[in-house]
Amino acid sequence: MRVQMLGLCRFSYLGLRGYQRHHATIEERRAFLYDPARLARRWLWLRTVALPGWLAQTDPDFTLVLMTGPDLPQPWLSNLRDLAARHPQLRHELVPPMERHLEACEAAIAPHIDPAAEVIGHFRHDDDDAVALDYIARAKADFAQVRDLWQAEGRLSLDHSRGLMMQVGAESVRFVPRIAHNMGVALTIFLRPDEGKTALHFNHTKLPLWMPGVAVTRPLMFLRGIHGDSDSGDIGPGIPWEIAPDALDRQLSARFGLARMDLEGLAQRLAGA
User: Fold this and answer.
1) Could you tell me if residue 107 is left (phi over 0), alpha (psi between -120 and 50 degrees) or otherwise beta?
2) Does 3-272 carry CATH code 2.40.50?
3) What is the distance between the terminal CA atoms of the chain, rounded to a whole angstrom?
4) What H or E segment, with its residue span, contains residue 37?
5) Residue among 124, 110, 158 nearest 11 (CA)
6) Which positions ≥6 away from 219 have C-beta within 8 Å?
7) Residue ranges of the domains in the chain?
8) pLDDT (tens digit, 9 = 90+) per residue, 218-252?
9) 31-87 per-position pLDDT tens digit
10) 90-94/129-131 β-pairing
């Protein structure tokens, strides 16, 4: 069975909906999203935290759509275009502001659905989060184990729920281990190709309303960034788990291709941005 892994990353996409922060007009939203200092910080997160894992996946057979608006300021617009040109798994989609955010997400994803696929593994990814280097491989392998459950309804959520909450403050980084169900990162929504929906169409906190779900609590699979620019800035509910400091450093490297010193450097650069 051909499974296509297809994700969406919204980089400061301009639309009135899709954010927890409220703005009364599109002009207010544009001024907020396109603030030069904010864009510089979001780019630091994307390059330092999000991209390393995607560019080093053990299974490179996936597509991640980088969605933004056609009026995203330079150099960020060219930076995204150049990233997609250099890496075949990355695609760049320009979507003008739309009244309905979910329709905008569908417009970004639809051109990249593989007509030969029998199942689409949709995922969302924020530009300040990271997934493990084997996320794509594990999602496919774990789906194969529960494929019969998907076939019953044509919908299934697969939640890799063991992660690290990375709280970034004034030149400091704190890691909080959590098993957090349906957090949104490392969460795959398996749909039929003709469903006409994306991972964003389903509120990740209410997934059982629409489909059966499976939680996979090992191994460590995601890192979630929490900081001053976060759209939702709290850790949220979850089950604590423990990891020793030396083991944490090893896991950051082995699971995400990241180094603590680079993440501490990110905090310092963000403080000065």
Assistant:
1) alpha
2) no
3) 47
4) helix 36-45
5) 124
6) 132, 162, 255
7) 3-272
8) 999 999 999 988 766 678 889 999 999 999 999 99
9) 999 999 999 999 999 999 999 999 999 999 999 999 999 999 999 999 999 999 999
10) unpaired
